């Protein structure tokens, strides 16, 4: 097998990606489909780190607006990401993919703590490593957690799985003439406030030269296709 362009990737999934039509926060059928996409990428020879958000269950900022202290709300949000990580782990192991969950908030009876060298060993053994609890501190997001882990794990790219097929110059749901970028620079994303990831995550990727590939995870087979250099996506780069 030839070496793929992006051998080691970090896949960032928003919590909402696990939601189904029926309003279930974690829909087992949807989660199984997402796991299938990850398994296909693994099968094609990629090393996979995964960061899952928690927005389908709990968002610190929204809860803080309703009166919960911000830091406490953020810790609750981080716990939500651990639930999602376990759901993705379960779905992957049901289809025979070995995984480990590592949490930025130690939770000894539930999963491993984040230990970079240990994560390296897991990847070397072909396991998918799922990083939970973001960076482990309030006032951050899982986008920042994804950028941080991508840098620490020396990932070749950060793949951001969303429900749109890339980055547009305007909101494609509101503006009929909105055009998708094939590539766009980190600085344009920041200066035009394009909706990719939060600013600290973009800056971290820029400073560490990690391309961000934005693609639609809901399109069946799209992750593997984009990894092959096919499929529809936008790459954010220097
Ligand atoms: N969070 C946090 N620190 C982190 C990562 C997450 O405080 O490093 C909290 C924050 O409250 C956030 C919630 O966890 O709203 C869920 O994560 P996020 O909103 O990033 O999830 P996503 O939008 O990707 O589903």
UniProtKB/TrEMBL annotation:
Domain (Aspartate/glutamate/uridylate kinase): residue spans on this chain: 7-216
GO biological process terms on file: 'de novo' CTP biosynthetic process; UDP biosynthetic process
CDD domains referenced in this protein's UniProt entry, alphabetically: AAK_UMPK-PyrH-Ec
Principal location listed in the UniProt entry: cytoplasm
Residues reported to bind ATP: 12-15, 55, 59, 162, 168, 171
EC number: 2.7.4.22
Reactions catalysed according to its record: UMP + ATP = UDP + ADP
Coiled coil: none
Cellular compartments per GO CC: cytoplasm
Class of this enzyme: transferase
Subcellular location(s) per record: Cytoplasm
Membrane-spanning segments: none
Binding, UMP: 54, 74, 135-142
Pathway the protein contributes to: Pyrimidine metabolism; CTP biosynthesis via de novo pathway; UDP from UMP (UMPK route): step 1/1
Keyword Chaperone: no
Regulation: Inhibited by UTP.
GO molecular function: ATP binding; UMP kinase activity
SUPFAM superfamilies listed in its UniProt record: Carbamate kinase-like
Keywords, in A-Z order: ATP-binding, Cytoplasm, Kinase, Nucleotide-binding, Pyrimidine biosynthesis, Transferase
Matching HAMAP family: PyrH_B
Subunit organization: Homohexamer.
Function in brief: Catalyzes the reversible phosphorylation of UMP to UDP.
Family: Belongs to the UMP kinase family.
Protein name, entry field: Uridylate kinase
């Amino acid at each position: 097998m030839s070496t793929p362009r992006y051998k080691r990737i970090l896949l960032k999934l928003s919590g909402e990606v696990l939601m189904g039509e029926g309003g279930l926060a974690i829909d087992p059928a949807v989660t199984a489909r997402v796991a299938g996409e990850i398994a296909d990428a693994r099968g094609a020879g990629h090393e996979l780190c995964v960061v899952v958000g928690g927005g389908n269950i709990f968002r610190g900022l929204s809860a803080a607006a309703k009166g919960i202290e911000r830091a406490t709300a953020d810790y609750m949000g981080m716990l939500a990401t651990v639930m999602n990580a376990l759901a993705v782990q379960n779905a992957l192991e049901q289809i025979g993919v070995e995984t480990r969950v590592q949490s930025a908030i130690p939770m000894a009876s539930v999963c491993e703590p984040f230990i970079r060298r240990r994560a390296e060993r897991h990847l070397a053994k072909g396991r998918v490593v799922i990083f939970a609890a973001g960076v482990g501190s309030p006032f951050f997001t899982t986008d920042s957690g994804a950028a941080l882990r991508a840098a620490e794990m020396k990932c070749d790219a950060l793949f951001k799985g969303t429900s749109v097929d890339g980055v547009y110059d305007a909101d494609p749901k509101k503006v009929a003439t909105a055009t998708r970028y094939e590539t766009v620079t980190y600085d344009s994303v920041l200066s035009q406030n394009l909706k990719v990831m939060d600013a600290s995550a973009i800056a971290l990727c820029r400073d560490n030269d990690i391309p961000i590939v934005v693609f639609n995870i809901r399109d069946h087979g799209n992750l593997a296709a984009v990894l092959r250099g096919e499929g529809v996506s936008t790459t954010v780069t220097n």
